[in-house]
Design brief:
The complex is a heterodimer of chains A (359) and B (258). Helices cover 69% and strands 2% of the residues of chain A. By secondary structure, chain A is mainly α. Chain A is globular and about 65 Å long. The two termini of chain A are 42 Å apart. With 258 residues, chain B is of the alpha/beta class. In chain B, the strands form two sheets. Chain B has a six-stranded mixed sheet with strand order 6-7-8-3-9-10, with helices on both faces. In chain B, helix 6 packs parallel to helix 7. Classes of the chains: A mainly alpha (359), B alpha/beta (258). Chain A: One of its GO terms (molecular function) is transmembrane transporter activity. Chain A: It is a multi-pass membrane protein.
């Protein structure tokens, strides 16, 4: 030990002869397979897009004109509009390594608020809608606060919030449905999202436009603004993000509030889609699982920080395509669920594989 | 003698009954590399956290450039030009090199796109990031947009040091920069640290690796039982002395005299 300062200290001098290429950043030639792997790593929405294209192609070939028509293809969009909007909200939460089980219940509750405020209290429809959106945002703020400040697991917070919101929805609405006839006559703005226009057989509703707009705006915000980068960083490694100077609490709060607001929009889209306001709409019970399914099939990692909103959008469309295609083919509806189950497992397997970067 | 760039006086931090820092003094002079060594539990990480804003000391004061400062968070310390490279590196593995370098201080585009749509100026950030990496001799960076998780340990450390060097105007604190690295990668990072010093920024280096400490440091702060035991000159002492001081096997001259 005592001579360690003498001969011991130049133990690295033999390194001068060693290769110095270790710390270089050169990309290794990995061949076609490696490049595909890299492409998936850089663009995680590629897998669901390929699956979606393949599904449309297969149904198009087997069912012909009946499926491959503007009317049918836009029908898919109409059928996925609610799940698509909910999946956008779910994407934000899951990117921060959370999960939101209350999205569907929030959407239903917000639609009930919009309807009941307008009809029960005689508030003008625009104000009623604004109240619905505000309450959605508020519920999101409560969940976000519980997750960020009280440090409860998102699963537990939103599992509780799901039950609370759903129960509040039944209690407040007294289980009353507002009929579509009444909406059309006295508050047409509530059904605004159901407004449709046709272009050569293709039918587009404002709800579909809203869904696409939400996805486009979120895609921009997540990719090109500091806030979007912070959402990814917080989901990837919250401690690291905080040390690097990200406002973790602010980011989580804003994500849950934005998700709540989007759930409010989903409630408005629901009124347009169904024409009526019903507190017992199935979305309240299955909306959470449907949106998580779309997000997972879309290649967004449940561990947070990875994936793109386009993936979730494609995921929702894949589910819609399977449902409609298989129904048109006359298959038992259970085949849809079976295939979607396989897709979920496949998507997560692909996600795990993409994460293995040192192949 | 020149004034210390960063100075701590009587720093005390207690966790319940445990006193992690006990009226500790600390001096970092301009342009030097000061190594901080100490056995596990000696309180050196608490000292570093106090200096980087991650821990608020119960007592004592910190002076930067002779002026008293207090940090409520690492972000505030950064505002004063004190950058820390944590042992965990504080990087998001799934995000790119550029994203990580500018995390929390992104550059927005000028004009409407930046102020109204809050769009990031990716081209400018890439240019600056490339420039900073080049400054430190990491010239072999090819794809600055590749995810940090695709880099080796040494490359990640290099990016973290480059990030600190790019924004740290006063002091850079490096916590165990070579602990997780192999021999060759360590060498690269040590060269990087010397490059940073050559640019005049003083560095606090926390390390368990005695050969690295003795090679780089201008002075060595030996931490023991929550306070500064002594500051030794690596040229006048052996590694054996240093280890003996920090473990209590031997008392340094000054302490025995006092």
């Amino acid at each position: 030990m005592s001579d360690s300062t003498g001969r011991g200290q130049d133990y690295e001098s033999s390194l001068s002869g060693a290769s110095t290429s270790l710390a270089e950043f050169e990309a290794h030639e990995k061949g076609l397979f490696g490049r595909f792997h890299n492409a998936l790593h850089a663009t995680p929405a590629l897998v669901p897009l390929i699956v979606l294209m393949a599904a449309i192609l297969i149904f198009g070939v087997t069912l012909g004109e009946r499926f491959f028509s503007p009317g049918t293809l836009t029908l898919i969009l109409q059928q996925v509009q609610i799940v698509g909007v909910l999946a956008a909200a779910q994407t934000l939460i899951i990117l921060t390594a959370g999960i939101d089980l209350s999205v569907g219940a929030m959407a239903v509750f917000c639609s009930v608020i919009m309807g009941q405020f307008t009809f029960r209290y005689g508030i003008p429809a625009p104000v009623g809608i604004a109240c619905g959106l505000a309450i959605g945002t508020g519920i999101g703020a409560v969940s976000g606060w519980l997750v960020s400040r009280v440090k409860l697991p998102p699963f537990i917070v939103t599992l509780g919030m799901w039950q609370i919101v759903l129960a509040a929805n039944y209690l407040y609405s007294k289980n009353e449905t507002i009929r579509s006839q009444d909406i059309r006559e006295s508050a047409p703005l509530l059904g605004f999202m159901g407004m449709r226009f046709e272009v050569g057989g293709a039918v587009i509703t404002l709800g579909v436009v809203t869904m696409i707009l939400i996805v486009v705006v979120l895609a921009y915000v997540l990719r090109s603004t500091a806030w979007g980068r912070h959402v990814y960083a917080v989901g990837d490694d919250a401690e690291a993000a905080e040390l690097a100077g990200v406002n973790r609490h602010g980011t989580i709060m804003s994500v849950y509030m934005t998700a709540g607001f989007i759930c409010g929009l989903a409630g408005w889209v629901m009124i347009g889609r169904f024409g009526s306001v019903s507190p017992s709409a199935s979305t309240g019970v299955v909306g959470n699982i449907q949106s998580i399914t779309a997000v997972v099939i879309g290649g967004i990692s449940l561990f947070g920080g990875r994936g793109s909103i386009w993936g979730a959008f494609f995921g929702a469309l894949i589910v819609g395509t399977f449902e409609l295609g298989l129904r048109m083919a006359g298959a038992n509806a259970q085949w849809t669920y079976l295939l979607i189950g396989a897709l979920i497992i496949g998507a997560v397997a692909v996600d795990q594989w993409i994460r293995k970067v040192t192949s | 003698m020149t004034e210390p760039m960063l100075k701590g006086r009587g720093l005390t931090k207690r966790y319940g009954k445990v006193t992690a820092l006990d009226r500790c003094d600390f001096d970092l002079y301009p342009g030097e590399i000061l190594a901080v060594i100490g056995d596990n539990g000696a309180g050196k990480s608490t000292l570093i956290k106090a200096l980087s804003g991650a821990v608020i000391p119960d007592e004592g004061e910190i002076l930067l450039d002779g002026k008293p400062v207090t940090f409520a968070s690492p972000i505030e310390a950064r505002g004063y030009g004190i950058e820390t490279v944590y042992q965990t590196l504080a990087m998001s593995p799934a995000l790119s090199i550029v994203d990580n370098m500018f995390m929390g201080r992104e550059i927005r585009k000028k004009g409407m796109m930046g102020s109204l749509l809050r769009q990031l100026d990716k081209a400018e950030m890439e240019r600056v990031a490339r420039e900073k990496l080049n400054d430190l001799g990491l010239t072999t960076v090819q794809n600055i947009n590749q995810a940090v998780e695709t880099l080796s340990g040494g490359q990640r450390q290099g990016v973290a040091v480059a990030r600190a060097a790019a924004f740290g105007s006063k002091v850079i604190i490096l916590d165990e920069p070579t602990a997780a690295l192999g021999v060759k990668e360590s060498r690269k990072v040590l060269e990087l640290i010397q490059d940073v010093r050559a640019r005049g920024i003083p560095i606090v280096l926390i390390s368990h690796n005695m050969p690295h400490v003795f090679e780089l440091a201008d002075r060595i702060h030996v931490h023991r039982l929550g306070k500064r035991l002594c500051v030794i000159d690596p040229k006048a002492h052996t590694m054996n002395d240093a280890v003996a001081y920090m473990t209590g096997a031997k008392e340094p001259e000054e302490v025995r005299a006092a």
